[in-house]
Amino acid sequence: MAFFSKLKEKLFKSSSKIEEGLDAIVEDGGEPDRPSEQPEPRPEVPQPPAPEPPASPPELPEPEPETQPQPVELPEPETVPVPEHVPSPDPAPRPEPMPVPAPGPEPRPEPEPLPDPMPADPTPGIPPAEIPPQGGGLLNRLFKRGAAAPVMRRTLDDDMLEQLEELLISADMGVDTALRVTANMAEGRFGKKLSTDEIKSLLAQEVTRIMEPVAKPMPIYPKRPQVVLVVGVNGSGKTTTIGKLASQFKAAGKKVVIAAGDTFRAAAVEQLQVWGDRAGVPVLTAPEGSDPASLAFDAMARAQEEGADLLMIDTAGRLQNRADLMEELAKIVRVIRKKDETAPHNTLLVLDATTGQNALSQVEIFRKISDVSGLVMTKLDGTAKGGVLVALADRFGLPIHAIGVGEQIDDLAPFDPEDFAAALTGLDA
Ligand SMILES: Nc1nc2c(ncn2[C@@H]2O[C@H](COP(=O)(O)OP(=O)(O)OP(=O)(O)O)[C@@H](O)[C@H]2O)c(=O)[nH]1
Fold first, then answer.
1. Which domain holds residue 351?
2. Which parts of the sequence bind GTP (predicted)?
């Protein structure tokens, strides 16, 4: 419970861009749900000489609370699943890209046609009801959020769709995915008036639908040691993720060994040792500049001797010379296969969510130079645009095993599509 509220709080930053954008889009060109209850003063109607105001202002019915069902049902928060919860070996084929258009959510009932916003014959002398100014900036919206703000609705038309597309693209969802998502949202709803919450719900449903097939924990194989090769560009969070994963596996009763395969940077080795100490897991190192493949071979031998369940191999992330890196990774794979020809059993690509669309080209590159089997997306706590995960899922369909939401050892969470979609869109859980 506590963990998930922490996760939501941390993911808030990534929700803010889309959430604020959706609020603004509906307000831009939208109108309050029940404008007949909030008559504007009609300037051309002559006002009689100021009579005494009535003892009490006319009672306006409360704006009707929104009764739209929330289609996204968030599961009960749970604690961090430990690797034991991981399903048994499941080298399942990668999910097919999502078909378009997919069956969208149930069409919502069309809202009642709005009555004429001007009463035909307003009673003279009664002061107009005070209504908060519509539209305006963020502060305005924030204030209205706290009070019983009228529900805004906007007709889903071409203009609105274009604005939605732009918003999703600006949140790093990528052009193709943004177009597909908005097309699915509009299907069967074009010309209908939708509230902000309805739009958020629709978007959350679309995001969940794309993300569900890729939300898979790292598969565990009945192999000892199971070899996990960790790849990714420098600074993406490989070391931190290895430390967090090692800690979770250890807590689940697994015997873990780490190999510091980035032998080119002494600082990288030291950092991994720090994480190994934190997780209580041995870290095998080699002198700076030595052959990473030879270290991987020694680590494999030691992990086998010690009966380790898991060997996690860190690697260098220098993309400046792609050919060298490719050769280095290929050599690591060659030598560990001398000990176990089925290794490595997982090749995790660690991506930094704050790099936005760049993450897409990193996947393309690493898929060419290694056999990427799954993704870990780090630093989701540090971006206002988590949409890149949706683009990744939509384009590549690679499993997303976990997300990093901070720098502490327990800041690695399994990827939950519904929670993610709710956080991304600002939908209340
Ligand atoms: N906020 C946040 N910071 C993270 C997360 N994961 C990693 N970091 C930080 O990102 C920085 C780089 O992380 P590393 O684990 O060193 O990345 P690396 O890929 O091993 O980098 P090299 O050692 O240079 O190859 C560190 O300052 C980490 O604390 C995360 O999920 N959230």
1. 226-425
2. 232-239, 314-318, 378-381
Q: Is 269 in the pocket of ligand 1 (CB under 6 A)?
A: no
For residue 271 and ligand 1, the question of a CB distance below 6 A is answered with yes
Q: How far is the CA of 354 from the centre of ligand 1 (A)?
A: 11
93 lies in some domain: no
The answer to the question of whether 67 is labelled as a binding residue is no
pLDDT at res. 34: 61
From 155, 179, 214, the end of a domain falls on: 214
Query: In whole angstroms, what is the distance from residue 300 CA to residue 225 CA?
Result: 8
Write the CATH number for 355: 3.40.50.300
Give the whole-angstrom CA distance, residue 240 versus residue 207.
Answer: 28
| Ligand 1: centre distance to CA 403 (Å) | 12
Q: Is the CB of 243 under 6 A from ligand 1?
A: no
Report CA(301)–ligand 1 centroid distance (Å): 28
378 annotated ligand binder? yes
Cβ partners under 8 Å of residue 389, min gap 6: 211, 353, 377, 380, 400, 403, 420
Q: Is residue 54 part of a domain?
A: no
Residues 80 and 172 in one domain: yes
315 and 340 housed in the same domain: yes
Residue 204 and residue 266 share a domain? no
Task: Quote the percentage of the chain above a pLDDT of 90.
Answer: 53
Least confident span in 9-13, 43-47, 255-259: 43-47
Residue 314's closest CA among 227, 252, 401, 385? 227
Token pair in block for residue 56: 């009490």
Which residue from 10, 230, 240 has its CB within 8 A of the most atoms of ligand 1, so it is best to mutate? 240
Helix axes 2-27, 138-146, angle to 10 degrees: 120
Find the mean pLDDT for residues 96-102.
35
Same domain, 340 and 242: yes
The answer on whether 236 is annotated among ligand-binding residues is yes
- Both 157 and 272 in a single domain? no
Q: How far apart are CA 38 and CA 283, in angstroms?
A: 68
State how many domains the chain has. 2
Question: pLDDT tens digits for 159-171?
Answer: 999 999 999 999 8
**What's the one-letter identity of residue 173?**
M
ipTM of the complex: 0.96
- In this structure, are 182 and 264 located in the same domain? no
Ligand 1 pocket test, candidate residues 80, 233, 239, most atoms within 8 A of CB: 239
- Residue 317 CB–ligand 1 contact under 6 Å: yes
Cβ(349) to ligand 1 under 6 A? Answer: no
